Amino acid sequence: MGDHSHGPAKGLSRWLFTTNHKDIGTMYLWFSFAMFILGGAFAMIIRAELFQPGMQLVEPGFFNQMTTLHGLVMVFGAIMPSFVGLANWMIPMMIGAPDMALPRMNNWSFWILPPGFLMLASTLFMEGGAPAFGWTFYAPLSTTYAAPSVTFFIFAIHALGISSIMGSINIIATVMNMRAPGMTYMKMPLFVWTWLITAFLLVAVMPVLAGAVTMMLMDIHFGTSFFSAAGGGDPVLFQHIFWFFGHPEVYIIILPAFGVVSQIIPAFSRKPLFGYASMVYATAAIAFLSFIVWAHHMYTVGMPVAGELFFMYATMLIAVPTGVKVFNWVTTMWQGALSFETPMLFSIGFLVLFTIGGFTGLMLSIAPADFQYHDTYFVVAHFHYVMVAGAVFSMTAAVYYWLPKWTGKMYNESMGKIHFWISFVGFNIAFFPQHFVGLAGMPRRIPDYALQFADFNMMSSIGAFIYGASQILFLYNVVATIVGGKTVSDEKVWDGAEGLEWTVATPAPYHTFEVPPKIDPAHAHS
Amino acid sequence: MIRIAANPALDTVIKLVAVSCAMFAFVFVVMVPLYDVLCDALGINGKTSGEAYSAVPAVVDESRTITVQFITNNAADMPWEFAPSVTALKVHPGAATDTVFFAENVTNHAMVAQAIPSVSPSRAAEYFLKTECFCFNQQPLDAKTSAEMPLQFIVDQELPEDIKTITLSYTIFDVTERAGEALASR
């Protein structure tokens, strides 16, 4: 057992063969940042083309490939793996476990990802080009009319689906079996709770996505007709299956983000989280509701009125548990001793902008109104408010918040604040005008637009370039911290922070909690 | 006796793997058939019944007149000429009405086609009853030949009052490659 006392192996083999949750978490985080830059580069091409009306830079076919790959890379390559990386780093340290329950599988679930995305990115150089059917890959665009590279796309989805399922099984197994004695479920930090529920969602719906792409594969190559009307199938079936996966998927993306801000807001408000139990129940309620609202993405396919009404009311219901959460975060800050370090700024930015995204979501949930909003830039604005200002802002907050614990170095606070303000302003310049052009009827995923949308689109592009550039500052700040940041050695880097991760040395040693920590039974949740 | 210490998480893992396999199977064995059953049973999504309606002696409701419009579409890469003989008919609910569609194989080789119907508004689908339809079978045609394809239908007397016009759309697909395979006719 002496095996466990020494540190990491040297060189490349450390990263290839590691079973250490911190190493794997680090790899996930760097990989997702690389994907964030790649997906961001695709977005820059989209915004550059849309800077002025008319066709300027790229062919329409290539534009379609960019919108498709931007969505796929950001959802499956940047946001999801970044939160899995965070889970790997933080969950064992938050529940007092020495590592993840299945360390070898953990290694495998990471190392499936890079080949999967290599396969997806390689389609750009294939005959017929990359997938160009949108990230939702509706049949028959993705079957009858797809470029031959669609087969590579299908196997890439299989690869990252397997990776996600294994990662989630690992997280559930860890949380259910490896908590330190005394760490009851209702004492777990909220980040652990939200991830536990997210992992259950992933186990339930990633196989559905795998099923959908498998049906596509069979329709394309083996003569079945799941989605082809000529053989008795139905393209609308594809949309039902896709969104049965796709709606829980958006909560898979946002629930860990809820968990992160639920850790950070109390720390910088110097108050315990308001309404801990209601936060747990609200998370579970959102997860349950996510399974019965999928068809609100397809109001215009021609559903019966009863169906429209059911999905409309069920969708509106989600605003209740989400409202509970927003209320609890605001109430946590109420009369707190607030300070505004970078993680807190990003969390408050999250809170404000995610709420705007939530409200536009509520507008979209109204079936009769959705007939106007459907497939316009209003939808684009809505989901970027929840995906970028929601998930990405909270992920950025998490990196600033835990970076000193990971590295033992403090990042440059002024640069962090500048990063926040440039991101916040750039993001809003980029996406707020898209509400207006969307309501005025500008369709999404089209490389050209009518002249009356020109001014707002130019603003939007400028904002997107500002937001994109601010991420370079982020990268610089993180690298500069790791290379030459000011050393911090306090176990508790932030004076208001609570939780087991702040009881271990800084930087966090390679192995933590080989002996389970003592949990004070009187102490409430952290 | 040597006891191999089992990972305490093993039980959890086995259950979760079983759940994910079950969800994969769920898509194929539950979602797909359930979708078809629901669409057929509720007549939603404009799907009309795939089987001939056996006419029961019905009272013709002459107080109402319904306009039935006919539209034809060709699926991509389907070169046939395909058109209705009349584009609209005025019918009384309960009365059996005959019409024909024309199809011509303009290519130089024999082909097999399948027409897929869709009714709009979709609420009307379950009240649009076809007693005879070319869409129940595949239509083979030799090169440069044409055919008249019959349709007989009855609009049910129970059709909701507010529906005055029903549009029946046929899309014709090239199924030559699949023609050997047994297909559920629609």
UniProtKB/TrEMBL annotation, chain A:
One of its GO terms (molecular function) is cytochrome-c oxidase activity. It is found in: Cell membrane; Membrane. The keyword Phosphoprotein does not apply. It catalyses: 4 Fe(II)-[cytochrome c] + O2 + 8 H(+)(in) = 4 Fe(III)-[cytochrome c] + 2 H2O + 4 H(+)(out). Its EC number is 7.1.1.9. Keywords: Cell membrane, Copper, Electron transport, Heme, Iron, Membrane, Metal-binding, Oxidoreductase, Respiratory chain, Translocase, Transmembrane, Transmembrane helix, Transport. Gene3D superfamilies: Cytochrome c oxidase-like, subunit I domain (1.20.210.10). Pfam families: COX1. The keyword Chloroplast does not apply. It is a multi-pass membrane protein. One of its GO terms (cellular component) is respiratory chain complex IV. GO terms for biological process: electron transport coupled proton transport; oxidative phosphorylation; respiratory electron transport chain. The chain crosses the membrane at residues 28-48, 68-87, 108-126, 146-169, 190-217, 237-261, 273-297, 309-331, 343-367, 379-403, 415-436, 456-476. PANTHER family: CYTOCHROME C OXIDASE SUBUNIT 1. Cytochrome c oxidase is the component of the respiratory chain that catalyzes the reduction of oxygen to water. Subunits 1-3 form the functional core of the enzyme complex. CO I is the catalytic subunit of the enzyme. Electrons originating in cytochrome c are transferred via the copper A center of subunit 2 and heme A of subunit 1 to the bimetallic center formed by heme A3 and copper B. Belongs to the heme-copper respiratory oxidase family. This is Cytochrome c oxidase subunit 1.
TrEMBL record, chain B:
GO terms for cellular component: plasma membrane. It is found in: Cell inner membrane. It is a single-pass type II membrane protein. GO terms for molecular function: copper ion binding. Pfam families: CtaG_Cox11. The chain crosses the membrane at residues 12-35. NCBIfam families: PRK05089.1. Exerts its effect at some terminal stage of cytochrome c oxidase synthesis, probably by being involved in the insertion of the copper B into subunit I. This is Cytochrome c oxidase assembly protein CtaG. The lineage of its organism: Bacteria, Pseudomonadati, Pseudomonadota, Gammaproteobacteria, Cellvibrionales.
